[in-house]
């Protein structure tokens, strides 16, 4: 493909081949419409590539994790195309995923943090191509509840998703990281043995999402936040924090793209029961203590 020329203006000419079925679908869509082929192709590609869209991408569901479905469904290499900020976990529930500035980090249950290779796979991840508005200074927060209250002021609706990043100095941070767990072991059982980490006087970044309550069978409702320190050697699922000099960046997400697993475990699972209480217990479960 040749490099675009400034003379092309905002539209760049491209040439490609498509399957006949795709072309027939294009012709059918254009028939009787006032739109052009350029408009249709631009719209379709922009939607697929999430260009100019406030889109949250999710791999699998929180309910699948609750039921112990931990087999990796997508590699980090593929996940990179869906966002540069996010969170999740890895195959076998092996620790916490923290995605900051397009870098994928793994916080393991022994407290070790490493940047993840492209070939590593994930059973669950939530990502976005983060394009926030103006940074907003926050009041000093003595607890996670205080921080969530500050973030609540920045949200304009309880019915849309929000991507969140908070940077600053933290006098205390409490995190956890789930241990590697066999497929089929319920999440609440796995979380019962998770280690907890206590950090003091660290500069770092909180990333995560706020999701509406009516999506509780698909996502973690309310705030779901992970933490990574500036040195990139400590972090995890955020349980509590106190901080100052905090600056929040927030983006409202009005589009959701969901990829569901095709494994036998997922296809045969019974998701009819309300697992929200199990999810809440797993997300807030206390664990053993470790200083970092």
Automatic annotation (TrEMBL):
Entry similarity comment? Belongs to the alpha-acetolactate decarboxylase family.
Gene Ontology annotations of biological process type: acetoin biosynthetic process
Q: Which gene encodes it?
A: alsD
Catalysis performed (reactions) = (2S)-2-acetolactate + H(+) = (R)-acetoin + CO2
Query: Hey, which pathway is this one from?
Result: Polyol metabolism; (R,R)-butane-2,3-diol biosynthesis; (R,R)-butane-2,3-diol from pyruvate: step 2/3
Molecular function via GO: acetolactate decarboxylase activity
What top-tier enzyme class does this entry carry? lyase
Name of the protein this chain belongs to: Alpha-acetolactate decarboxylase
- Matching PANTHER family, A to Z? ALPHA-ACETOLACTATE DECARBOXYLASE (PTHR35524:SF1)
UniProt cross-references to NCBIfam families, sorted A to Z: acetolac_decarb
Per the UniProt record, which EC number(s) apply here?
4.1.1.5
Keyword annotations of the record: Acetoin biosynthesis, Decarboxylase, Lyase
Which InterPro entries does the record match to this protein?
Answer: Acetolactate_a_deCO2ase (IPR005128)
Specify the domain of life of the species encoding this protein: Bacteria
Keyword Lyase tagged: yes
């Amino acid at each position: 493909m040749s490099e675009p020329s400034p003379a092309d203006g905002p539209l760049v000419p491209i040439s490609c081949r498509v399957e006949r079925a795709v072309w027939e679908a294009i012709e059918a869509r254009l028939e009787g419409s006032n739109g052009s082929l350029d408009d249709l192709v631009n719209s379709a590609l922009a939607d697929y590539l999430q260009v100019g869209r406030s889109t949250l991408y999710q791999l699998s569901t929180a309910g699948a994790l609750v039921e112990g479905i931990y087999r990796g469904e997508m590699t980090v290499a593929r996940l990179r195309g869906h966002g540069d900020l996010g969170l999740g976990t890895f195959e076998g529930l092996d620790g916490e995923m923290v995605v900051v500035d397009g870098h994928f980090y793994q916080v393991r249950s022994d407290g070790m943090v490493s940047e993840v290779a492209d070939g590593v796979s994930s059973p669950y991840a939530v990502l976005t191509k983060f394009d926030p508005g103006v940074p907003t200074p926050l009041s000093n927060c003595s607890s996670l509840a205080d921080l969530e209250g500050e973030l609540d002021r920045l949200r304009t609706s309880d019915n849309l998703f929000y991507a969140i990043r908070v940077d600053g100095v933290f006098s205390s941070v409490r995190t956890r990281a789930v241990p590697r767990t066999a497929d089929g072991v319920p999440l609440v059982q796995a979380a019962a043995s998770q280690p907890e980490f206590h950090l003091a006087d660290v500069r770092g970044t909180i990333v995560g999402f706020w999701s509406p309550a009516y999506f509780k069978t698909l996502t973690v409702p309310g705030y779901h936040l992970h933490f990574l320190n500036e040195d990139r050697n400590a972090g995890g699922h955020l349980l509590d924090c106190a901080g100052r000099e905090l600056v929040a960046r927030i983006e409202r997400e009005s589009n959701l793209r969901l990829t569901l697993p095709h494994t036998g475990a997922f296809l045969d699972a019974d998701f009819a029961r309300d697992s929200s209480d199990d999810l809440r217990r797993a997300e807030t479960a206390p664990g053993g203590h470790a200083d970092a």
